[in-house]
Design brief:
mainly beta, five-stranded antiparallel β-sheet, elongated
Length: about 140
């Protein structure tokens, strides 16, 4: 299946914590980073997600925020360090490609944010992704 979601990184499920309706799924990405996805319990069952399952993490570029370093005191659980691999700016928005261990992420942020953060190729950044914005696909 082809998807418009560019951010797809392979990983392995290391834990599933089911709730009444939702579950949190901890995934170890190909580069060794751990991320948490909050998905429906129904999806966990339909996809057969269990500890050890191979999955792809999927994140829309509009759901990836960038910081110039780790952020404390924040509810966003997923903070993935990386390096800016490229920046393409338009009239109001920019696409920032970030190399991370085991893959690449794209963040769609405002052109003003790129300027304010001083982002350029080679800049160190941290990709911030809410667990509710990570989808999973069986691999």
């Amino acid at each position: 299946m082809s998807l418009s979601i560019r951010n797809q990184i392979a990983g392995t499920v290391v834990a599933v914590s089911p709730g009444e309706v939702m579950a949190t799924v901890k995934v170890r990405l190909a580069g060794g980073q751990d991320v948490t996805a909050a998905i429906t319990l129904e999806a966990v069952k339909e996809l057969g997600i269990t500890e050890g399952s191979a999955v792809r993490t999927l994140v829309k570029s509009t759901e990836v925020a960038l910081a110039t370093g780790p952020v404390e005191g924040l509810s966003i659980r997923n903070q993935i360090p990386g390096t800016v691999a490229g920046v393409a700016t338009g009239g109001a928005m920019a696409s920032v490609k970030v190399s991370v261990e085991g893959g690449e992420l794209t963040a769609a942020i405002t052109k003003d944010a790129v300027a304010d953060l001083g982002l350029a190729e080679g800049s160190s950044v941290v990709a911030l992704i809410k667990s509710t914005e990570i989808s999973l696909a069986s691999a």
